[in-house]
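U., I forgot to send this yesterday:
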Amino acid sequence: MRRRVLAAVLTAVVAASACGSAEKPAVKSGPGVTEDSIYLGVLTDMSGPFAPTALVRIKGYELFIGELNARGGICGRKIELTTKDHGFNVQRALDGYFELEPKVLGFLDLTGTAMTAAIAPDLIQTRALAAPVSWAAALLGNPHMMIVGGTYDIDVMNGLDHFKRNGVIADGDTIGHIHVEGDYGTNALEGSTFAAQRWGMTLVEKSIPETANDLSTQIAALKASGAKAVVLSTSPGQTALAVAAAAGLGWEVPFLVNVAGYDPAILKSLAAQAVMKQVQVVSPIAPYGADAAGPKAVAKAFEARYPDTEPNGAVNHGYAVAMAFAAVLEKACADKDLSRDGVLRAFQDTNGVETSGLTGQLRFSLAGRPSATQSYLARPDDKVKGGLAVTENLFESDLVKAKGTRAK
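Result:
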């Protein structure tokens, strides 16, 4: 009974459809599609710095796919994952990609900015659809990339709007932004830049390399500038360093952190108390345990299947990506074309994917536009499963509407 309820609540894939039934409609196929299975690749970091998140995200994929397969799969075929670990090394990622590519229909996971950039040219040649573990707007121009949720700049704008509505910042204030170099930081900075221009604020931005391991100079400079709030588009370790540096100066400034810069492990560090007091995390994906139908049902199913695994937001991320990818495959099945070209056409035609609060409603048909424009706000809390307590459910700010990034 619970599985039937989850199917009804969580997926836009209709169980009664011909594609989801045990029937095998006559369809055009290609790499990764057999009479009985559809193979999808997962190329991720299972042994390097992002392994804790990646391993939990994979369980999110497995959770959705297990439920989907129990309902008959897609086009009468079971979904199978083929996984490779690149250890956050570009050459290992390329080696793993070239091994997987001939065997899979597409990629449910590409982890790492540098790894994704190295693989992207071949994706164009092979026509495979891929879902990178990134919300960088630069990827929106690649018709082979599925970005599930709003981009980094959208999250920053929504988060700053939350701060402004709650009196944390006001027109004319100074705000700071520390961001890593590269697509992640550059895209996030676009959000704070637009907000500052719109509200007549002074923006003091500090760029840091991905390897930076001391942010005390940047924090001291932002404190001296009189910043009323600081945006962090950093790694989780750098987030902890920045907050600890502010605490060391006795500066209780509020921080807005992109979800890529947060890991519940921070709550076991020396910075934990300051993080819980001063940080808000903004995300296009529901935090684990959010009070919406989708996240609640995923949490219940996850804890039943993986009782010994400590959950975090990567569960919902994996589940939502798998749900979106499945919706595209269902469309391709309905069009009787499970070739790579057929999947790409289906991707560009897939709209109105309802995730029951795991994300905003997803739409992939508008080239160069994000698939959703809503965000969650949450505060770190070591007493909450997943390490985040929601402070504002999915919302889209007037700032995002004014910038014209919304997926209409």
